[in-house]
Design goal:
By secondary structure, the protein is α+β, with helices and mostly antiparallel strands. It is built from 5 helices and 8 strands; from the N terminus they run ββαβαβααββαββ. The strands form 3 sheets. It has a 4-stranded antiparallel β-sheet, with helices on one face.
Length: about 170
């Protein structure tokens, strides 16, 4: 069932809702605000983790990582919404693992984080896992302390993709 502004409403309890709409990096603030309006996650006075997808150190024009304009729009919205603590971080993939700061600098995400960058690869904690595979996994303390995302609860995320006809912003 199609709802307002491209929001898909599930027919059954537990179904996912998705917002897909046209956006460019130049006007993504409107799309970010609309997504927060529709999905309304409670962020006031909470610790919120903004986890861009940082696969490797790449220029924004390469479209390999989350675009800095989207991260900046999300951080600005969280600041205006009274989030208690905002953390922006990721552990870059195979090609740049351990080079968090260098990746955030090259991608433009360090500036887009507006002072909220944190190397979430530091301070790992052991968390019980499925013993059939491994007894425990290492998870960043920042991830464990954040309200969003939280294992077993709905989470809120932005995903940008580009095509020859333009970009899209999904939440």
């Amino acid at each position: 069932m199609q709802g307002e502004a491209g929001v898909e409403h599930g027919k059954e309890q537990g179904m996912h809702r998705v917002m897909v709409g046209p956006a460019t990096y130049e006007n993504c603030r409107r799309a970010v605000a609309k997504a927060f309006e529709i999905f309304a996650p409670e962020v006031r006075a909470k610790t919120v983790l903004v986890k861009p997808n940082v696969l490797r150190a790449a220029e924004p024009r390469e479209a390999i990582t989350t675009h800095p304009a989207v991260v900046k729009a999300v951080v600005e919205y969280l600041q205006a919404s009274g989030a208690g603590r905002i953390i922006v971080g990721d552990n870059p993939g195979i090609f740049s693992y351990g080079a968090n700061e260098a990746c955030f600098q090259k991608t433009g995400l360090m500036d887009a984080s507006l002072g909220h960058y944190m190397n979430i690869g530091e301070e790992p904690e052991s968390v019980p896992f499925n013993p059939e595979y491994m007894d425990a996994v290492a998870v960043s303390r920042a991830v464990l302390e954040a309200v969003l995302p939280r294992a077993g609860r709905p989470h809120f995320f932005f995903h940008c993709s580009r095509s020859r006809k333009g970009g899209s912003l999904a939440s």
